[in-house]
Amino acid sequence: MSDKKPLSARTAIITGASSGIGRAIAMHLAEAGAHTFLSGRTAAAMDDTKKEIEEAGGIATVITSDVRDVSQVYGLVDAAVEATGHLDIMVNNAGLSYPAPILEGDPEEWRSMLETNILALLVGCQAAVKAMRACGAEGQIVNISSVAAERRNSGVYGSTKHAVNSISSSLRDELEEDTIRVTNVMPGAIATNFARNFDRDFINTMGKMAGMEFELEKGDRLPPEALETLAQNMKQLLGNPNDVAKAVLYAVTQPIEVNIADIVVRPPRSMNVPH
Predict the structure, then answer these.
(1) Is 157 a catalytic residue?
(2) Backbone angles phi, psi at 141, to 5 degrees
(3) What does CATH list as the number for 11-189+240-264?
(4) Distance (Å, rounded) from C-alpha 214 to C-alpha 275?
(5) How far apart are CA 177 and CA 51, in angstroms?
(6) Are residues 19 and 49 in contact, defined by beta-carbon separation less than 8 angstroms?
(7) Helices 224-233 + 200-209 axis angle, to 10
(8) Catalytic residue (one of 74, 98, 157, 250)
(9) CA gap 161, 163 in Å, rounded
(10) What pLDDT is recorded for position 206?
(11) Could you give the CA distance from residue 24 to residue 127 in angstroms, rounded to a whole number?
């Protein structure tokens, strides 16, 4: 019986891999045998993840990059292909959120979300497909969206994630004749540093339900230590980054003829508030 890992000899890029969902995805893909390329802006955090992966017998490479720069996204893909000779998996995970009603929003914050959540993802898809076609890979594009895309009151952030859903669907159609699959993953509320940017009403409500004494005002962010306590107290309402990573791993380990189009990853219970 073979003990070969399901992603042995595969090359995978994960953007936004400094922490949270991106870090968890990198860990799971590496454990499954992939050579993981971690992309993000925080080198120290990614170095820690690389060390953990290597101590567990995996392979990881850290590339510090800002996905809002088109040339850096192409450079990231080129570096992975140059190092391994091919690209098999591209996980477009990098994301940014500035929660605010549209009428109260800052146009510069909108620009940052549009550049990170939409433009960078588009470029990542384009660069990855070109590389996969060039090396004849049975490739997989994974785009990390959000259930916020389905909510009416999730502002500009939700609109960017609605765009991600549409991009994934369009790209899937364009690649119908290729051996490249596209999976769109929509997490619900997940306990990561990103969660500190959730809508303040959502966080305040969860805090009260958890018996915690705080009240965020406009512009406030949840302190890291409070997020950790909240996550422990509200496991039914906040998912874990590993839940999303397991969904990604499931999609990328299917036979090429199985195309997992969309995956929704929700915590056991949902709250009818924006997140």
Answers:
(1) yes
(2) -100, 130
(3) 3.40.50.720
(4) 18
(5) 39
(6) no
(7) 50
(8) 157
(9) 5
(10) 57
(11) 23
pLDDT at residue 10 is higher than 70: yes
Name which of 189, 145, 182 is nearest 163 in CA terms. 145
∠ CA(43), CA(46), CA(49), 5° rounding?
Answer: 155
The dihedral built from the CA positions of residue 79, 75, 122 and 150, taken in this order, carries a sign that is positive
Q: Which two tokens stand for residue 249?
A: 């791993």
Q: In 63-119, which ranges are continuous DSSP H helix?
A: 70-84, 107-113
**Window from 59-63, 100-104, 151-155, 228-232 with minimum mean pLDDT:** 228-232
pLDDT band with cut points at 50, 70 and 90 for residue 216: low
Length of the chain: 275
> Residue 7, SS3?
coil
CB distance 33 to 2 below 8 Å:
no
270 has a pLDDT exceeding 70? no
Which H helix or E strand runs over 60?
A: strand 59-64
Residue type, 131: A
What is the distance between the alpha carbons of residues 12 and 29, in angstroms, rounded to a whole number? 8
Domain boundaries along the sequence of the chain: 11-189+240-264, 191-238
The pLDDT tens digits of the residues spanning 28-52 come to: 999 999 999 999 999 999 999 999 9
The rounded mean pLDDT for the chain is: 87
Lookup: tokens for 201: 């009403």
| pTM recorded for the entire structure | 0.84
Handedness of CA 208, 210, 213, 218 (dihedral sign): negative
How is residue 211 written in tokens? Answer: 């018996």
236-264 residue pLDDT tens: 567 789 999 999 999 999 999 999 999 99
Structure letter (DSSP) for residue 143: E
